[in-house]
Amino acid sequence: MSRTAIRHLYLARHGEASADESDLTENGRRQAVLLGERLRDSPLSAIHHGPLLRAERTARLIREQLGDVPCELSPSEPAGDYIPYVPQERELPVGSAGAMVRRLAEFPAEERLRGPELARAALARFTGPVEGDEPRHELVVTHNFLIGWLVRDALDAPPWRWMGLNHCNAALTVIRYAPDRPSSVLLYNDMGHLPAELRWTGFPAELRL
């Protein structure tokens, strides 16, 4: 029987994007640098990032802050921006089901149709203990929806519950996967590395603290 070891999965949403989402704003670049500085002493072995430029730029800025750590950048389609699960109205809370279904219908059909396949691939690639005897620490620079999807999976919540789990730009979430133990969410949407003026970007205004 093969041995498995602990995986620490670090999740970060890309830095604040420009209005057309083609690049990062100056604030977004600062956020990425500060997150990289926070992670400088973490034993990361890999940084995965989604294919969109705002995720790639964020990952590169983070990597630049890590110095001589042997940590490679790895583009990953499952780390991209898509709808991970499209629920049926009957699955959702009665009071908000209609609004939630209408909201999802606003997204491009490709994101809704191909998203579940990519979401399953993300679970297979990024979650659970790792093979071998050595613990692994990996960072995935991605988007709001995928972070919600991975967190709800770690908590064994219903598939639709990725909705409503929002994440700020360049905030940090960490999930621990240990053999023969339930997964643990160690950090969620942590912005301790960001000054006040760089916090809460990308987050619904009515939910900010």
Provide a descriptive summary of the structure in words.
The chain has 209 residues and is of the alpha/beta class. It contains five helices and eight strands, in the order ββαβαβααββαββ. Helices cover 30% and strands 19% of the residues. The longest helix has 18 residues, at 109-126. The termini are far apart.
Q: What are the main properties of this structure?
A:
209 residues; alpha/beta; six-stranded mixed β-sheet; two-stranded antiparallel sheet; 5 helices; 30% helix; globular
Q: In terms of topology, how is this protein built?
A:
Elements: E1 4-5, E2 7-13, H1 26-38, E3 46-49, H2 53-64, E4 72-75, H3 97-105, H4 109-126, E5 130-131, E6 136-142, H5 144-154, E7 172-177, E8 184-190
Parallel strand pairs: 2-6, 3-4, 3-6
Antiparallel strand pairs: 1-5, 2-7, 7-8
Mean pLDDT: 95
| Number of E-state strands | 8
Query: Radius of gyration from the CA trace?
Result: 17 Å
Strand order of the largest sheet: 4-3-6-2-7-8
Structural class: alpha/beta
Unreliable residue stretches: none
Q: Tell me the series of helices and strands, N- to C-terminal.
A: EEHEHEHHEEHEE
**Largest sheet entry:** 6 strands, mixed
Helical amount: 25-40%
Task: Give the termini distance in whole angstroms.
Answer: 48 Å
Query: How much beta, percentage-wise?
Result: 15-25%
Outline type: globular
